[in-house]
Design goal:
alpha/beta, ten-stranded mixed beta sheet, two-stranded parallel ribbon, 10 helices, binds S-adenosyl-L-homocysteine
């Protein structure tokens, strides 16, 4: 037994004792947002645990997609209890699911703060691709895009970005009766939001998704698409090794500035300059997405200008037939015109493909993600301020 401290002889015994403060409830650490390195630091430095416990916890979250500490049965009960008081895995709750006739499934998730985001699952013969969101809403305000009408609500955390992948893996496993924990083979960051406008969280999410102790996606199977935030393209090239896609969508600055406000800050010349400097891995090309808008950017002259623009860039063009959104005022290019456009590009030695339109019947196609019926549509904060 410890002896109580003797009272010092000159202590003021009449002073009011300071009432014992109840300790403020500690903020829970979002462990699903940490890289293995970060998680190891948290477990060893904050919780006084051994490092291999971090690997166990990480594998539970990012290989098996566990969403509660309870199910991590090879962690001691005491550790699971401790984790519950100090840490959390932030869940995405499935709110709606829509299936297209072409096999595409659009999932709508509710975040903890009551926001809605969407991910689109696109199975094909040789791959299972997920289109992932990086923000709630988007600040880029492209005039043809439905998400652009929402304004930016907030960034997704790394954990919320990764959680879309885990959740869809879980759904697909159930749906297709698969044994494997990771049915998804490819990821495209082309959902709601501008990935390079949430770069730090995107980077952390990529680290987790590419980690061997996690889902172990190959850099060859991940593509990030950007509206063209020029300074961020450089950082993206230096700090990640995944594939780059650029939403070009126009053949002149006049056109592009009309539909994509970002072009008023970084025009086509600046954007393509960043592309020329981009550190491309052996055999890789930059994908340029070009949404075909009838009588706006789909003429022969547009095709010729595009050939010239991309002349000295290892490029591949994905022509996207416009998915019409009520009220936005643009029309889809006719099939024959799209085909002619593609042919002109090919003849000009630019590899071009017409992207198959997926999920149109469920508004799950490009530029249609705006969670109709969700609360995001209200109190829009249009924020054209660019970083
Ligand atoms: N903000 C990023 C990621 C979103 S990708 C980016 O802009 O690249 C979404 C793609 O769909 C972009 O290439 C965009 O140009 C395209 N898009 C937007 N609205 C569309 C629509 N209504 N129909 C077809 N494609 C659209």
């Amino acid at each position: 037994m410890m002896q109580p401290e003797p009272t010092p002889p000159n202590a003021d015994l009449t002073a009011t004792p300071v009432p014992e403060q109840a300790p403020a409830p500690a903020k829970l650490t979002e462990v699903s947002s940490l890289t293995l390195e970060g998680l190891t630091r948290f477990l060893t430095e904050e919780l006084g645990e051994r490092a291999f416990r971090a690997s166990q916890l990480y594998r539970w979250m990012h290989q098996r997609g566990a969403t509660s500490f309870e199910e991590m049965t090879d962690l001691s009960k005491a550790l699971r209890e401790k984790l519950k008081t100090r840490a959390e895995i932030v869940p995405l709750v499935k709110d709606a699911e829509q299936r297209s006739v072409d096999g595409t499934i659009k999932y709508r998730w509710k975040t903890r703060d009551g926001r809605y985001i969407e991910s689109v699952y696109m199975p094909s013969e040789d791959r299972k691709t997920l289109c992932v969101s990086t923000q709630v809403g988007c600040a880029m305000a492209c005039t043809f895009c439905m998400t652009g009408t929402l304004g930016l609500k907030r960034n997704l955390t790394p954990g919320e970005i990764v959680a879309q992948v885990h959740a869809v893996n879980r759904e697909v496993r159930k749906l297709e009766k698969l044994e494997t924990y990771r049915p998804l083979s490819n990821l495209v960051f082309m959902g709601m939001g501008e990935p390079l406008h949430n770069f730090e969280n995107l980077k952390t999410a990529l680290k987790i998704l590419q980690s061997v102790e996690g889902p172990n996606f190959s850099h060859r199977h991940i593509t990030v698409s950007t509206v063209g935030l020029v300074p961020m393209i450089e950082r993206f090239g230096q700090e990640t090794d995944v594939k780059l896609a650029i939403s070009l969508n126009a053949s002149t600055d006049e056109q592009r500035s009309k539909t994509m406000p970002v072009n008023r800050k970084w025009n086509i010349a600046a954007l393509l300059d960043a592309c020329r400097k981009f550190p491309l891995r052996q055999g890789r090309r930059i994908t340029f997405e070009y949404v075909l808008l009838r009588d706006f950017n789909d003429s022969d002259e547009d095709a010729f200008r595009l050939i010239e623009l991309l002349e000295d860039i290892p490029a591949k063009v994905n022509l996207i037939p416009y998915n019409e959104n009520p009220g936005l005022g643009f029309k889809t290019t006719m099939d024959e015109r799209a085909e002619r456009f593609r042919e002109l590009l090919t003849n000009g030695h630019v590899a071009a493909f017409i992207r198959q339109n997926r999920g149109r019947d469920i508004a799950g196609a490009c530029g249609q993600l705006a969670n109709r019926g969700g609360e995001n549509a209200s109190e829009s904060t249009q924020n054209p301020e660019l970083p």
